[in-house]
Amino acid sequence: MFAATSLGTTPKQSDTLTINMLASEIPSVKNSASAVLYDPEGDGAAAKTDLIFVPSSLFNAVFTQYDAQGQPTQGQTHGWVHHHRFLSHLRHIHLDGTATAAATDDEDHAYSVVVGHRTGPLDITQPTTVVAHLVNIEGVECLSWPVTQGYVAMSSLYSWDYSCLPPKSLNVADAFAQLGTSLNVLRPGLTQDDETALQAAGAVGARLHSRLNDGFSMVRYRVQTGEVSSAFFRSPLTPNTVSFPTTEQPQWPATSTTGQKLQILDQQLNLMDLTYSAAWNLGKTLALADQTFAVALSRVRTQILDVAMKMAQEAVVKTWAADLGIPSPYRTREDVVGSIADTIKKVGKLPGSKLLQQDPSGMVHRWFRPEHPKLDLTYKGSEVDPVIDQYLAGAAALIASTTDDDGSSQTPPAPYNEFNVPYSPDWAVVLKWVMDQYFLVNVPSHYLISDASHLPTESLRFFNIDPAWVWAMVDGGLSLANHLDRDDDRLRDAIKGAINTYLKTQIPGLGYVPPVPTYGFFVRSALVTKFPDMIVDLKGTDKQDPNRPPEILRHQILGQDTLFGLLRAAPASPDFCSFLLREPPHQQYFAAATDITTQSIEMAYQRVYTDPTANDPDRQKTIPYIATRGSPPQNRGANYIWGTTSTSRDVRILNVENYASDVQTQLLNTFKSNPNWYTAPYASAALMGIELNEPCWQLEVQLPYADPPATGNASTASHTESTTTTSGQQRPDILLPLPPKRQHPPRKKAVFPSQPQIACAPHPSFTDRTRATSLPRRHPAPHTRVPRLGPSTPLPAPAPPLSDTTPSGPPQFTYMLYPVGSASAGLSQIPMLPNSAKQDLVFSIVLTPGTEQDFLLTSLSFTVPLGPPRPLVAQGSDYRFSGGGAAMLSNMRFVVVAQFDLGGRTLTLTVRPRSVSGSWPASRIDELSFLLSGVVVQTYDVATSVDVPVVARYEPDRAFPGDLFVELVPPPPPVPPVPPS
């Protein structure tokens, strides 16, 4: 077929059996007619399309015009496509309650719908893969009729494959009914054998049975000493409400530093419960993995500490000054400005008040200032430590507040609630992370479902959320960046208090506090795979609180067949009436009939109304259509065509024209007594879209029961109603636990230390005093004159330049170079070993005592000459020393780097400080010795002296050269062996 095209004789087909080829080559395909319209000028020579080649017998049957009895009409001259006007329409769909489709800003969700009027195979006995194509029929009416070639080329616009199920397979209605019968809480499903075995184990079995019913699982656990044991673990999703000790009870710590304090020993089974310890460590791991949160939390801690310490120190200083009866040394700008008027008044009264004359101490105590008692203003100081908690709480409230001005004088301002502008942008990041933990965002699935038996396939499970589990996880995340407290993290407690304030404060304009999930559900079913946007809805009652409507806080697909949802509270009266699972309108499918076989078909026409106020008591009652092959109902025609002959099943298409006409006629006949209910003059694509649409099935769980059912109650799924049950529990507390108020000893009042008393006469009267006369001089003062400098007066000589030996010169180092183990000689000598043996050389650098100066050392470099063969170093390369390497011996504050020069003539060894500033004070250096390993020393016939230049560099940009002379000496003669005695 394709020999005349560029595809050759073996074209490659896609997974859906299409062939991609040039549109210009379609007429060249042998034994094939083309329904593809191609314009060389408009489409271009490079235009390609995906083609399917339909057998001409099937093509002729699909595009034949049929009469009301399902027989081909006479005189057809071209392909018939007029009936496709009933098979496409546009829908505007309401998508609230779906997992992903509604997560857009556009509220108008419009979908184009194209319905195929051909059904799948009817005689299969096992699932069969079927390929579907959306084809372009624009050129069908242009083909001569009937098509006589073997195949017809059609352009495939979109294609997919699916599994066609045999008759009596599980359908949507049965799947919804199965979900209703599987309703239970999230706990392991114990078989009867399991129950019997646990009962036979006595008290231990009863305790283990209780733990399993509480949602616990057994996990592998390694204790700190290394032994492998077993332990209990439970996810945050529990089958019942968790009763947990409060923070006033000593066994439940509000904060933890490692999570180990949250382990609980089951004293009856001698097994450790790792639930809350694992939650704490998970929270810390998630926090460490979130770099943005970790940095923001560190900054928030710093902000709270700075504000709290400032307020605490100010309060402590003022209290200390009040105790001593002196003015406070800590005064703000506002305090100084406010006291200027009073200060001026007091200074103005001093001349007339005669305070100095009335002071009995006189002049002695006029300028005397007693020594003040010492004041410790550090974080752990005796003055700040007892009062810092309240200021940390106030600072956290300030950092967690908003900058929006709501016109109130609230102090501190209202908390940031994600609807206003935050005081600190970092706090917005921290709050978002904490709230994500409340919603179990990013919590791994194996933490949510600790054992696969908790959530079997085709099941619906409800659960409570353990608040203590969430507390532990949040506490673990907030434990980062603690650099102050070892046992009691006060900053973390302050942050928790600010979060609790946010959770307790109503959001302005909404009338309710931030919602937090405390209940939820899992749906694991093939329905989730088939309908990823399955609608979850909650029906309220007339008695529900208008400020707390039933709401789904999280609705997400966790796996291919698993739907996860979180609710604000447990479904219970009077808030909730029922819980609904419903097919999404945009993912529903279309069906030709309610039942179809190789010999019969049954249809159920839905009642359609053009009057939205129609009150039809039989609205759910359908209009039946039943036909057998070859015998359509009288006066209603054939709605389905099985095949081209009386026994074949090769066509399997709807007779759309007769189907639409029959639906229109039956609706008008049904509503004869109420003609205003349906007034459409003719059938339309909208009418056929409704009739071909499969009923919208839903599962309704009516609430509540007093206790959760043991195995779930049977329910019936239908497109009207289904009934199952669950339990409602009281909503637990969601606030983070805080430690009890810390107790401190009573504060001691500050007093002046005792001062020695000095006896002194009273201050003399100013009016009785006279100025003292100076004593007469026996010898007059000499007359001196400073000589004037003339042009011939020589100027003083300039000071000589500083030298290395002057006290202000650079530090002096003593350099030596010798092999390892030869330091005792005190000489820089290196033996020249034969056979290129490698040696480890010690560069000894010792600061000469008494030469330390205020110099900042930036580098100390040694330039070692190299002999042949020299390494090849390319331009711009960073060729490093390839031997054993250079390493510091003891002073780890410095690092040594070995690097060749460009020509490979020298090796430069540079000692640099490990400092951000790039320098280090020379006064704090004792020695800088390092080791160079794996050195091959060049050999000479006689002893040779080598000069190793040394340069010491100091800030700012000062260099002082030096030299290290090394003598290369022949190796010592071998020691003769000692003869045996």
UniProtKB/TrEMBL annotation:
Region described as Disordered: spans on this chain: 611-630, 708-807
Biased composition (Basic residues): 741-750, 776-786
Comp. bias intervals (Low complexity): 715-727
Entry protein name: Uncharacterized protein
Organism, as annotated: Staphylotrichum longicolle
